[in-house]
Amino acid sequence: MTHHKRYGPILVLIVLSLIGTACQSRDLVDKLPAHEQKWTFTQGKLHSLVVDSEYDVSMAFIASADGSNYVEISGNMQQHTIDQLEATEIAGNTLKVELNKDVKLVAPNYKSTKLQMTVALADDTRLKQVSYKSKAGDASFTDLKAENIDVSFHSGDVKVDGLQGALTVEGTFGNITAADVDGSADVSLRTGQIKFDRFTGDGVFKLTSGSIDLTEQRSDHLDISVRTGDVTLSLDPAFKGFFDLKTTTGRVNAPEPPQETTDKIKVRATSGNILIR
Fold first, then answer.
1. Beta bridge partner(s), residue 130
2. In the chain, N or C: fewer CB atoms in 10 Å?
3. Residue 269: closest CA among 220, 217, 205, 214
4. What are the tens digits of pLDDT across the range 52-61?
5. Structure pTM?
């Protein structure tokens, strides 16, 4: 009984302290200043959009309602980030957007802050290059259109919903989920899952540990390699070529390919199963 009386008040203080810390963290997020900024440009002035982010970002490409072209960003962010944006201009046909944080002010709750980016383009305007780089954080992309689209990240999840162009994704830890990608794809990931739905184009997919899943793909040339994990592909009715499927430890389950053309789907796994169904 003596021990309960002695430690009871201490436990109460610890609980109250944790509650206070959580509330304070929520207040810090709420107090991050809101900022909105827009860069407008005429046709042919902007060729490349480069984004370097330490925030979660949601980027969407939309058709311009009035024929103007612009890039707009909005959300709650550090004043340090706002200062960077206000000093940013289109230079040499490139808009480089730095979304970096002041490390002295970073708290764990800040990582949940999501910024919105909108790229509005007139019908006759298309970017040559979109590059997105993130050290940590999630990123989502909707209806991206550019000749080349490069995404690189260290940790986090990347989601793509609609894309036209040559896509390159390189990640270390996380998941890559994409739907309705129309164009070539070169995707590499160290640890996580790669999932593509309704992918149209030739693709190279490399993974060290995790799984690769392609559904309803329309591809004549695929080169897929996994060190540890399973590979699952949909059976493509329009594919008329060969299968080249090998795993060191695991099972291969696939129907006989048509072998009417020289097109090839190649899959290699060190430890894992390969399934085409």
1. 49, 149
2. N
3. 205
4. 999 999 999 9
5. 0.87
Residue 40 to residue 239: CA distance in whole angstroms:
44
Cα 67 from Cα 85, distance rounded (Å): 25
Say if CB 96 and CB 36 are below 8 A apart. Answer: no
Quote the Cα angle for 70-71-77, to 5°. 145
Residue with tokens 């809101």: 34
CB crowding 87-102: b at 16 or more within 10 Å, else e: eeebeeeebebebebe
Asked whether 110 and 27 are in contact (CB, 8 A), the reply is: no
Sequence-separated (6 or more) residues with CB below 8 Å from residue 176: 157, 158, 160, 169, 187, 189, 192, 193, 194, 195
Per-residue pLDDT of 178-193, as tens digits, reads 999 999 999 999 999 9
